[in-house]
Amino acid sequence: MSYILQTDHLTKTIGGRQIIKDVSLHMKKGEIYGFLGPNGAGKTTVMKMLTNLWKPTTGSIEIFGEALTPASCEVLKRMGSIIEFPCFYEHMTGRENLQLHCEYMGYYTSGADCIGEALELLELTSSADKPVKSYSLGMKERLGIARAFLCGPELLILDEPTNGLDPAGIKKIRTLLKTMCEEKGISIMISSHILSEIESVADTVGVICRGELVKEITMKEIEEMSLAYIELTVQDIRKAAYVLGDICALSNFRILGEDKIRIYDQGAATKELAKALALHDVDVMSIGKKSETLEDYFLKLTGEVQEHV
Questions:
Q1: How does pLDDT run across 179-194, given as a tens digit for each residue?
Q2: Rounded to two decimals, what is the model's pTM?
């Protein structure tokens, strides 16, 4: 399969410390790729390397079928990006900032039309001729998104693009990203530590934790996985774990905190488990079937990485 973007054993070392470790990610053309991880996991560092702001220590990056090198100017012209917080000329208006961006990108055809469309899509038309220094944090974030797709990129790389937005603004950005992908054919990589944000827009999810790519999986695969589980709350967690493992012969369960256990064995039945626990004097405060969300799946993956560090 050909990918619009992929990395091979990407590694970054700074000050003798390896902050990105052997990351190989794969993004298909025409999809929204959700790059998910806790704060400090390495999302921004990877994105800086993808946009040629930082150079990898080892490993390689391929975009549009070409190896990314320090001289890859033409490849970058086909991309739009927001890395960390977008910066502007504060004394200039929003419209002037976008006009300047078109000029240094060499994008002159229908420049006025595309600027007007971008401002309208991001609901900035009424503020377009005001200096950026008067913009709120959310308005600056939206202006950054407008600038990122202003010149018709084939690939958008957006690092936490909904920072500073209220819930209504976040919802509008989600809708806009889906529209850009589905109607304009733009491939989008979006990073976030907010799981619901990724779950609602992404086709594929890459989970990074402590600089390592823990998992790459499509949302369809997550939905098709049998992620139902039985959750029980007990008073004696050690005794309950003993009964589940040694008496009931279950192996796929996870202890959460001091009183909660999740059982992922597909053959387990709540009625039989409750009976076994009662026979061995384990007080069960609650037991029932639940379905695992992307948040549960993410926490399980990142938790496993934390435990083995």
A1: 889 988 999 999 988 7
A2: 0.76
